[in-house]
Amino acid sequence: MRCAPALEMMSRSLDGPLPDAEQARLDGHLRDCPGCAETWRCMREGWAAVRALPPAVPPPGLAARARAAALQQAPVAREGPEGFLAGLFPVAWRFAVASWVPALALGLVAALAAGPVDSSPVDVAVVASVLRPDVGRMVLGGAVP
Amino acid sequence: VVDLCRRAAAGDRQAFGAWLERTHGVVFALAFRILGSQADAEDVVQDTYTLAWRNLGSLRDPTAHLGWVCSVARHVAIDRLRSRSRHPTQSLDAMTTDTSAPGGQPVDDRPSAEEVAITAQGRARVVEAMGRLKEKHRLVLVLRDVDGLAYQEIADALGLPVGTVESRLHRARAALALKLKTMFKHQGEAPP
Q1: DSSP symbol at A76
Q2: Does the reported pTM lie above 0.90?
Q3: ipTM (interface predicted TM)
Q4: Which residue among A54, A56, A74 places its CB closest to the CB of B33?
């Protein structure tokens, strides 16, 4: 066994006993590798020193203070149509729908208000009459009378 | 705990209190290790659960409650860190001198023959070696070996897969051991 997997086994053995086969492999490696044997001693003793450091323990009363502070606030809408929709549509879809539906509705209203589009053929003579002759030739080509 | 969270999300104030009671230890440890200050960590806990109460209704999967509340806590803690513009790690020096827990509670559940034998000098060296670890490794090491969090709790606290937590922990312990070995070799001494 190489040193890298041995290091991982050493670490895992600190959390609990290894399976017998793995423990035997680790023991064999530690017998044959003085460097890893020294590392193992440092790991165990360093681990004991680390565990002796003061843990982060919440002070008494913190939970009560946090609860009191939180419950002063009103919860944001938990029920009703919003909650129902939240279950049906992912956030991205809800955002897309919220953005595009009003835009499409406005476009439709504007189109209806503008009335039907005049699709009759262009009267070349009428167009040409409001253009300078040179511009008319450029835009309308040979159709200019 | 999941059921408490579900009921809290439906507006049950009593369930919210019980859920907070069960989960605030992990949130406090996370905030304390990010900010390095007990007062700031307490503020983060309060702000986190205030936000949680207001927004629990948006939590779709109550089984992910711990990861969700820790995610809120991380954002609150990082905002606080930015606002005070200080380095985001706990004062490791404080660990060498302060033998009481951050909450003023004595460390009462870990005495062992090995620990009794650890000298103040040895502890200072271990803390020095920890200070040389990569921050992502040190944070996992401290949450696991100092604060005693389970792998899943650390994964929830940091928003990482459990496998990543395990590999970071193994690397952190190995790196710490190798640093200690180097330090002792240079100083010609035995480990603490």
Answers
A1: P
A2: no
A3: 0.70
A4: A56
